[in-house]
């Protein structure tokens, strides 16, 4: 193979590794990548377990439905609930009604308002009586 082509290939591989988070062009070994993924899964499982402990089934179901539409809002509510639980502010499991009131408060704080929908109908010239 041409030495110039080999250099281009090596440079391209280094660029791809850097884009994938390899940092400094150092390739990530498959074991390191697997360890990172395993840590992320363990952290997410711990988060789900803690949420299950502080929320009622109905509240968890509602939050999962919200996550389908607005995942960032659901993640923010989850983080808020976990923080409250760690500080000892939750005395019992969060009910669906409490979750709804928390969501309403968040909407008021973030300035979230109901979307305004306007419908414009097209008017055609041949609709006129001439």
From TrEMBL:
Membrane-crossing residue ranges in chain numbering: none
Pfam families assigned: dsDNA_bind
Region feature (Disordered): 14-42, 110-130
InterPro entries per UniProt: PDCD5-like, PDCD5-like_sf
Similarity field: Belongs to the PDCD5 family.
PANTHER family attached to this UniProt entry: PROGRAMMED CELL DEATH PROTEIN 5
Protein name: Programmed cell death protein 5
